[in-house]
Fold this protein.
Amino acid sequence: MSCLVSVIEYNKYHIGLAKDGSADNFVSFKARKSYLVIRLKLEDSEDIRNELLESGLDLMDYNRRRGLQRIRLVKKDLLDNEEAIKKLMQMSYDYVHL
């Protein structure tokens, strides 16, 4: 990410990011026992859809109303797809902040 996030905020149901005391949820997380759901704010476009499919990650639904793509990650995904995950997070950051 091109910008440092100052705080990770969490509660029982949600892990989010904050910057300067305000929520900066271009990406958020939901922890489960055996996997992690990452929610990325992304534009619904053919290019991004192709990028997601090429990543080989376990895609969940896309929420058109909120512009959120959900992806299920297991430990192996974090190890094998680190660059793809970073790229998707950067795309989400750019979509929200630019």
In short: Strands lie at 7-10, 15-19, 22-23, 27-31, 36-41, 58-63, 68-73.
